[in-house]
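User: quick one - fold this with magnesium ion bound?
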Amino acid sequence: MTERQIVARLAREARPYYPRLGMAVLLGAVNSVLLLVGPWALGVIFNKVIQPATDRAAHVQPDLNALYLALAATYFSVVLSNFATYGTSYITTWCGQRFLASLRQSLYERLLRLPLQVFDRWRPGELIARFNSDLQVMSDAVSVSLPQSIGAVLTFVGSFVTMIVIDWLLTLVLVVIAPLMSLAVSRFQKLISSSMSRSQSRIAHLSATLTEVLQGQRVVKAFGREEFEAERFRNRNEDYFGAFMKMNQFVFMQPAVISAILTLGVVAIIWLSAHEVLVGRLNGGSIMTYWLLVVNLVNPMNRMAAFVGDLSKAIVSTGRAYELLDLPVEEDDGAQARPLPRIRGAVEFDDVSFAYDERSGLALRGVNARIEAGEIVALVGPSGAGKTTIVNLIPRFYRPQQGRVLVDGIDLAHVRLADLRAQVAIVPQDPQLFRASIAENIRYGRLDASDDDVRAAAVEANAAEFIAQLAEGYATEVGERGVRLSGGQRQRIAIARAIVRDPRILILDEATSALDSHSEALIEQALDRLLPGRTTFIIAHRLSTIRRATKILYIENGCVLEVGTHDELLARGGHYARLHAAQFAL
Ligand SMILES: Nc1ncnc2c1ncn2[C@@H]1O[C@H](COP(=O)(O)OP(=O)(O)OP(=O)(O)O)[C@@H](O)[C@H]1O
Ligand SMILES: [Mg+2]
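Assistant: Sure. Structure tokens for the protein plus magnesium ion:
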């Protein structure tokens, strides 16, 4: 997206805030008028009091009423102007933060609807950076720069117009240097936004490193790689530091250059106006007012230059946020998507080929398989064969590039995604628990499950016993990744979660790591209660689960090579028999 497109979109999306922003501008305009009062009053004091008092030869009495009036006007205009500034800042910040809050929400909702491919491709830190540092840059812009720049622009306009009224010829000088200034501003803006992009992508890199280490701290410790990770972080930290400082060079240099140009104009104006007084075209009071207005002008102009820098930073960040916001969501329901009423659970793979992305090769090649409703299917095969990939297609986490996956004879490509997933439950290999109570973690399977349902599910999953031993029972909070529970306990909670969901199709990725035999027995009992009546896919590593299956799919290299029961396949003496001999036979 180009900078212009980003700004246009921003302007469009900010439309609901226009009335409020209009108020802010109105208050800013009031403020800019109030700021004229001081210079005007000083001019009056000079002409009506100071001039007559110093130049006694003129025999004009100093006008003390005018003095007091001018002083009162100065005082009240300053006080009111500060309140008006407060109003402008508050309203603008409110609008900005409201806008950001809803942007943050949309970003989050978008994130929830992204297809899994995106998460395969983007590192979590990259995504997190858009939430943290990019939104922070935008927040600074809307809370600090925007209100101040509204004030500055209006003050500039007010002073400028008044200066034209007092002496348009003089003021022309400023108009002459304007193109020079805008040239400088636009040059800097380009430099700032390109260096800003670089700096933001480096901080994303940095935070990706951080999240990786946080997720993998056990690995880091186990391999004693603290120094190595510190070094890696140091390099990226330095990269970011360098990029950030480069950007700030431009940000800080901009006002200096702008002010060099501007001051040239100001000096010319002062020189010319002094000349005007010398030749008698302007009186002392007007010149005093005029000079004060020039001062009024310089400050906002300097600030505006800085704001342009902040705003171009913010635009870069907005672009990065929009980039995330525009990622295509999971291909959901076209208008023709069929509702999927309660299914029986027959699943068919019809010549399915699939690749995760263009670069990697086929993960599945021409898979054909028919699974009747209620069957228990064990997927067996070497690591990397494509077992997880096959089951990933059932809840439509991914779509096959070729062939069809059918449920009860209906092509999954054409059904409503929500209907499909409502009837599928997954017990992953390494189940993740949310940071919430155990009861809430189980209820995640079906949000309207009653407490009794939750308890019943826990009993069925053989989890009730260990839950009862926890100090707070079902209300026990489990950590961010459930670290306070053992693998077997987490898996049983995940099974309870699947049980409350009461799915028609159950997908179970058996833990490869050996559980202790007690947990294993408990989990098997739980499965025996969960499996009947549902179609179940088990990526099986244990002989006992494989034996229980009504059908075994032997998978290798993305192809289903053998199909049959344990005994049939053993009798055939093929791939499965060899795997069995190598893995299980004593
Ligand atoms: N998210 C992904 N993006 C790209 N390629 C992937 C992705 N997940 C798996 N693959 C690739 O697809 C192939 C099949 O992987 P899959 O995870 O299905 O194997 P698996 O049979 O489940 O193995 P394991 O028993 O080790 O879990 C592998 O070559 C793997 O590299
Ligand atoms: Mg797998």
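One thing worth noting: The chain has a mean pLDDT of 88.
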